[in-house]
Model the fold of this input.
Amino acid sequence: MDVAISTLLSPIILFFALGMGAALLRSQMSVPEAFAKGMALYLMMAIGLKGGVEMSKNPLTMDVILVLGAGIVLSFLIPAIAFACLRATTKLDRVDAAATAAHYGSISIVTFVAATEAVRLSGLDSGGHLVAVAALMETPAIITALVLAARGGGKREKPVAGSERGELVREVFLNASIVVLVGALIVGWIAGEKGTASVQPFFVDLFQGVLCLFLLDMGLSAGRGLRQGWRQLSPMTVGFGLYMPLIAAAIAAGFAYAIGMPAGDAALLITLSASASYIAVPAAMRLALPEAKPSIYLTLSLGVTFPFNVTIGIPIYIFLALLITGQS
Amino acid sequence: MDVAISTLLSPIILFFALGMGAALLRSQMSVPEAFAKGMALYLMMAIGLKGGVEMSKNPLTMDVILVLGAGIVLSFLIPAIAFACLRATTKLDRVDAAATAAHYGSISIVTFVAATEAVRLSGLDSGGHLVAVAALMETPAIITALVLAARGGGKREKPVAGSERGELVREVFLNASIVVLVGALIVGWIAGEKGTASVQPFFVDLFQGVLCLFLLDMGLSAGRGLRQGWRQLSPMTVGFGLYMPLIAAAIAAGFAYAIGMPAGDAALLITLSASASYIAVPAAMRLALPEAKPSIYLTLSLGVTFPFNVTIGIPIYIFLALLITGQS
Amino acid sequence: MDVAISTLLSPIILFFALGMGAALLRSQMSVPEAFAKGMALYLMMAIGLKGGVEMSKNPLTMDVILVLGAGIVLSFLIPAIAFACLRATTKLDRVDAAATAAHYGSISIVTFVAATEAVRLSGLDSGGHLVAVAALMETPAIITALVLAARGGGKREKPVAGSERGELVREVFLNASIVVLVGALIVGWIAGEKGTASVQPFFVDLFQGVLCLFLLDMGLSAGRGLRQGWRQLSPMTVGFGLYMPLIAAAIAAGFAYAIGMPAGDAALLITLSASASYIAVPAAMRLALPEAKPSIYLTLSLGVTFPFNVTIGIPIYIFLALLITGQS
Amino acid sequence: MTKHLRIELIIERMAHKRACRVLEAAGMTGYTVLPAMAGYGNSKRWSRDTDLSASGDMVVIISVGDEAKVRATMEQIGDLLGAHIGIVTTTEVDVLRPGRF
Amino acid sequence: MTKHLRIELIIERMAHKRACRVLEAAGMTGYTVLPAMAGYGNSKRWSRDTDLSASGDMVVIISVGDEAKVRATMEQIGDLLGAHIGIVTTTEVDVLRPGRF
Amino acid sequence: MTKHLRIELIIERMAHKRACRVLEAAGMTGYTVLPAMAGYGNSKRWSRDTDLSASGDMVVIISVGDEAKVRATMEQIGDLLGAHIGIVTTTEVDVLRPGRF
Ligand SMILES: Nc1ncnc2c1ncn2[C@@H]1O[C@H](COP(=O)(O)O)[C@@H](O)[C@H]1O
Ligand SMILES: Nc1ncnc2c1ncn2[C@@H]1O[C@H](COP(=O)(O)O)[C@@H](O)[C@H]1O
Ligand SMILES: Nc1ncnc2c1ncn2[C@@H]1O[C@H](COP(=O)(O)O)[C@@H](O)[C@H]1O
Ligand code: NA
Ligand code: NA
Ligand code: NA
Done:
């Protein structure tokens, strides 16, 4: 409870609320795109580096590999469940449902960061390899979604004009967030605590502050998306944006229990599963499933699920993690 | 005197001079717009947060509310005086005079920051609520200017094609600087010193350095504006850019004396009154008074008044504040 | 040896390798141009300030002036040698050879920074005036190149339509990097250690971290340049990109020996001579020698010589400096 | 066959939303706004990186439609350009899938 | 004298490389891509600074060529626009140094 | 009625000030410069986010004027394009308030 409140009143969440409020009041303010992208890059480098340094302190154990595997399986699996839910409860067609499902199988790195912070505040520890899990969970969901979309006979006979072999792979598996997360993780691993000491003031000390500025922008994006897109969302679709994270969290909790993860790590795996992508996957969907409607999947993931997760969701996921590890 | 010199030789002013010099020598260097806007956002968040944290330390007193009120009255009042001066001493037509007057009623946040620093160096204290005063003083001047412009029969019969009810209000009262200043102030107020400790390295430690980079860009803008626009300014108009801050300062000093403000706060209120806007108001004028000429009001405010204030003005305003509080 | 390895495994070089790898794998990631330019500005301000503060600690001696002179002579001289090598060993025509030669006479500020760090790690000292040398060495090479290109009768009868007297001078001698380097040097000199204390967290503490992000971008640029441009480079041209730095280094070592420079300073002068420009000179060449092919000079300087210098070159240059000062 | 025209409207950045509303109100089915980086007119120059307030910036709005709709729209744009700085041209163009406009 | 046409293709930013490949494959000798900052169509608006994923952004691709080549290219662009959002126009233009295209 | 033409000049970013001076000297009353983000020609590609020196970037300059002035201007642009990379087209357009040009 305490964690929930101190999370809600942290500058990060307050700035997100500020951005969202400004957008809903139709303020014209905006964060320049180039600046926001630069901050996103910074945040991913910082997360990767930190994870890598953590990992360099301990040898790679079987436990770690199990968790990496669990992440991949979850990212493949969750979209199938999301797809089934969407088809059963909403009127979205096959392609829209598949595209939306892909977002929920993938992850939100900002939600992950917020959860890391909340986990720390709860007095729990978490391992650096969860960053690697985050990177691994970004893309398998896209493959599941493509298969689901194609099964309905919707498979294109010939590829879109101008598309190129390997184009989607490059776009999806070599997108900025994966390259930077994994790359920085490796850099941190190689350089270790001593080697990265000189960059600590930039990548560690500033992290929380940059996150505030970034979340102000995310609030603006979420608020504007919601204001423009909510008409396209039926109540059932909005409902999906709220219960799907909980379903994904429950499944992930099962995995975490099965592997016997410590509470902090479990909370993060659960959060990753419950979070939905709003940067990498929407971009990939424009190439892979151009017929799907961005106004649906983006509004849902950024306007509904993201705010839900960073406010109410994370405390629930931590609670879940404590439950399965018998600490609550 | 000492303050004046250490102000003039601070890196901030030196970088401003560097930018101005480069522009006057016609160097092609420039700070990318997106980067400059990002820095502006950062500066306003940092100022707002700091003010909010300061305010969270003391209860809201009647004194504070009086100062807020004085700020609003000054912002309404000063443009009327500026307008009268312009009409009496220059050949500017009604619309140009009104638009220019609006700039002098509003404020420059960078001048405010420079003054805060100088006040601190003078060994004086200032309250966080002056940030709120700054935010409140941004816009009333625009209303006065619109009334002044309209009185001359220049009132448009029907609104400009495509304009929308509430458009100006959104643009003016919900512009980025007000939303971010007030928003960050509230965040700082709620989160308090303890809650904002984690963002201190970003928002406090870096502040002076970012300000240097920003002032380099302002120097470039001011220098280029001056080089391109000075031909459009008559000597009497340039004169206005130099004496108007002093008139506004004198009036504000009267208010500060009447309310009985402490010296540090008085110096800041005087500086706010003497400063002129060069971001928010020029943009608002393109919507509200499109017939007015940007080359006049922008050159005057950014090219003449801003450099005057940050070099010679601020020491005078501090001196004034000491005078009315009987400390000099 | 030790220095070589700890240089190669520093986060800076690792992030450069990451960027280069991502580009060669054809990842779509990119650093927004405005953000990269902002970082470049920051880096040059930081370097200039640091150099200025260092210089403010000691009086300007004859030794310093000798080094400044040596830098200028080297920048005039090296392009002539580079031109002769290119004409003798490659099939580049006069204009392409002259344009390429200009790049090798000028300098790379990032290579300079990397060398400063390596020098420090080797336990050597270096003076702040080397920053001034760097600034002075940026442009003389361009003049040599123009003379070389013109001698072949290739001189244009009349200037390019729309060109303006002084245009090239403004573009070349007042380009951003010179203005900011020299300007910040002067600011640092005037303000001194005490005056710049308040900006230290921004300009000193963050430096290494920002450099990482910047080098990630340089790796992307170098990798993409190489991937797209290598077909235009004959093996002999690539060879030039590898041996020319060594020739320039040898000449500079001679100068350093003649003047009797201390080892740290000598290492930096050698590095500056061996480095090649990839920002200021390519831009200047589009104006001064528009017929020259960017795909040759840019690929060579950024894709071949820069990676060579920051990995293998710098340790060699430090070794050379130790050799001529009798310390190795 | 219906003729199609492309409107190209160069207008102040600050006023571009007004222009967009005019286009929407006049029934144009779509438009695209491009940022400009510099310009010249009435012997004054502006450049994007020069002015923090961006109050002198211009944008270019492209809108394609059938002749009747474009003609109707142009009248209303005339109103807008009475108050704001800008210039507008129309060009005859061929379109793919004419039914869409 | 050969007639020359300018293609102006407004298309999703994410798909612009596909469009570029189509233009190259069809034999156009060059093209230039301009970023757009906002737009409207099918009663939806987008704006560049609004969406972190940039998945709704559009670009404008300009390509000039002789009539025969442009006509051939337009057919293949039709294929692309079957899958992606976009509109395309062609305009008759005069060029300097026609031999170059 | 005077005919009006729109010049669209695609030229190297580094040389755009030269082009602007040519336009001003030739008497064009205004122009607007748009940044490009990518392009292709002579089997080489460039992209804005790829090259720190921006030495390969292009811009598009739009300038509208009456026929006589544009014809005169085009000759001088020919000179410029002898030295710099670029292509230029002219299109017949209708303008609002023709007197202004
Ligand atoms: N003839 C023209 N062709 C293209 N753009 C123009 C033209 N005239 C004006 N502009 C643009 O409109 C802006 C304002 O023009 P003006 O009102 O003449 O100062 C200029 O800075 C240009 O960006
Ligand atoms: N008639 C048009 N003229 C110019 N741009 C258009 C037009 N129609 C659509 N667009 C652009 O294409 C995007 C997608 O259009 P739509 O598929 O109609 O939603 C819009 O947001 C505009 O940027
Ligand atoms: N036919 C064309 N249509 C549009 N843009 C072109 C064309 N040809 C060249 N360009 C532009 O001009 C640049 C240089 O062309 P080039 O000199 O052919 O390499 C290209 O990268 C494009 O941006
Ligand atoms: Na997920
Ligand atoms: Na004021
Ligand atoms: Na060199």
